[in-house]
Amino acid sequence: MSAELPVDIDLTTIASRGDALLPALEAIREKTPIFWSNLSNCWIVTGHQAITEGFSGTLPLLNGKMERLLQRVIPGDELRRRIPNTLRVMPHILPNRDGPEHARLRKLFVKAFSRKLVEDVRPYVRERIGSVLDLAAAEGVVEFNEGVARQIPGAVILRMLGMPESYIDRLKWWTDGTTRALVSFDPSPASLDTLESVIRDMIETFTPLIEARRKDPRGDFLSALVHASEGGISLSIDELIASLNLLVVAGHDTTTNSMTLGVRVLARNADAWRYIRDHPDQSTNAGIELMRYIAMSAVQRRVVAKDFQWQGNQLKQNEVVMLFIAGGNRDPDIYKNPELLDFTRTNDRALTFGPGVHHCIGHMLAKLQMGEFLAAATHRFERIEVLEEPSWATNLVFRSVSGLKVRFYPRQYEK
User: Fold this and answer.
1) CATH class for domain 14-410?
2) Which among 293, 252, 295, 275 is positioned nearest to 374, based on CA atoms?
3) pLDDT tier at 394 (50, 70, 90 boundaries)?
4) Which one, of 325, 346, 319, lies nearest residue 335 by Cα?
5) pTM exceeds 0.70
6) How far is residue 326's CA from residue 298's CA, in Å, rounded to a whole number?
7) What is the pLDDT of residues 241-274, one digit of tens each?
């Protein structure tokens, strides 16, 4: 009798294997939706129902404990010596907070990041997309990730902050330095040193801007964030820097990655490209389905606050739980034919932006930009060809590639 083949994932290496993640998660979900990984020494959750419950705030799962997780890389005293600014600022970032403190910070962030602010930026989004696509059409062959994708949400975030477009390269450095340290499953000491440099640079860059907005507010997001208050209490300087780090990473890099991975898929699917072109009014819904399918937003990490039973599993205090959005978004109990890209699909249960108390505040801006980009690109170009397969970054939380070389084929209009 042959033994059952083991099913497990090494989370320190799976991100660099790109699309290999998705069938690996499927195999685990078929075995059990809540799975203890011996290879990764954590719980891997892949079932939609369990992930939704994990995000709900009803279980003893903490978003925080950043310092304890980083102490696995560098011992406590040395950690505090090497990254003092990081340990002072980053515990205040929304994804690192729980309970009443999270609720307070989130309320202030939402006040600044209003629906009106997002909708007001739509004309600039369209203008920016048009100018970027003009350049892509003129060049023909471009590196899409940096030459197209980052140039749209990067410029939009800078516009919202009242900062010049020349900071786009700085946004990328800030983002890479943050994600390699804090959203990597296995950060290195060197990545923490880079993060400390990033946080120090953000403090030096934003502190004078924050002080200027305190004295002379403008009609931008930074002014709204600085002056947001609840009960007469506003955000501290460290909370403001942490919030701006979140805005930079979650506000521009995730949309950049979604555009790049989305174009990579659409380049292989002429029917999907034509569908968006022929149904521009459905481009936002198409963007939501595309984000589900590409699994850019792959996983969120939690830490067990105290021992508890979960669907027959005994979870112990301080164990790590990986809530795999990428697995839940392809759960056949929720999605018919989840491996198909289907723009007619209803996606009201998609996990992409995280359900529950930590639901992504920037989801409206991401959907707006994806929808506007897809409508404009499919109208402007007959197709996009991927010229060479990219290498995958080691970022497991937000999947991305190092670059994507493509050729644009403009549509031929009848004279």
Assistant:
1) mainly alpha
2) 275
3) confident
4) 346
5) yes
6) 5
7) 999 999 988 889 999 999 999 999 999 999 999 9
